[in-house]
Amino acid sequence: MSIRYDKLWILMKDNKMKKQDLAKAAEISQGTMTKLNQDRVVSMEVILRLCKVFHCDVGDIMEVIEDV
User: Fold this and answer.
1) Given 3-state DSSP classes, what are the helix, strand and coil percentages for the chain, each rounded to the nearest 5?
2) pLDDT digits (tens, 9 = 90+) for 9-54
3) Under 8 Å between Cβ of 38 and 4
4) What is the distance between the alpha carbons of residues 1 and 33, in angstroms, rounded to a whole number?
5) How confident is the model at residue 1 (pLDDT cuts 50, 70, 90)?
6) Strand, coil or helix: what is 56?
7) Which residues does residue 2 pair with via DSSP β-bridges, in sequence order?
8) How far apart are CA 37 and CA 24, in angstroms?
9) pTM above 0.85, yes or no
10) What pLDDT is recorded for position 52?
11) Given this model, what pLDDT does residue 2 score?
12) How far is CA 52 from the centre of its chain?
């Protein structure tokens, strides 16, 4: 099972937001941003902070991909 944050990058683009702006708005570290860039697992707290920034649901930010 893997995670993708493609939806997050689309939200950022639609809102004309840079990654550094998102890190500041969501109060997340550069290390966490690196994990997001690499489609690695981050804490639920981080996901909820991202949801708060964009006023959206978890499924609007990420998706879980089942390994076949």
Assistant:
1) 55, 10, 35
2) 999 999 999 999 999 999 999 999 999 999 999 999 999 999 999 9
3) no
4) 21
5) confident
6) coil
7) 65
8) 16
9) yes
10) 97
11) 92
12) 11
Chain centroid to Cα 44, Å, comes to: 11
SS3 1: coil
Q: Which amino acid, residue 6? A: D
> Which tokens sit at 57?
């649901």
Extended beta strands in the chain, E state: 2-4, 63-65
CB 28 within 8 A of CB 48: no
Where are the chain's structural domains? 2-65
pLDDT for 12 equals: 96
Give CATH for domain 2-65: 1.10.260.40
Distance separating alpha carbons of residues 52 and 26, to the nearest angstrom: 8
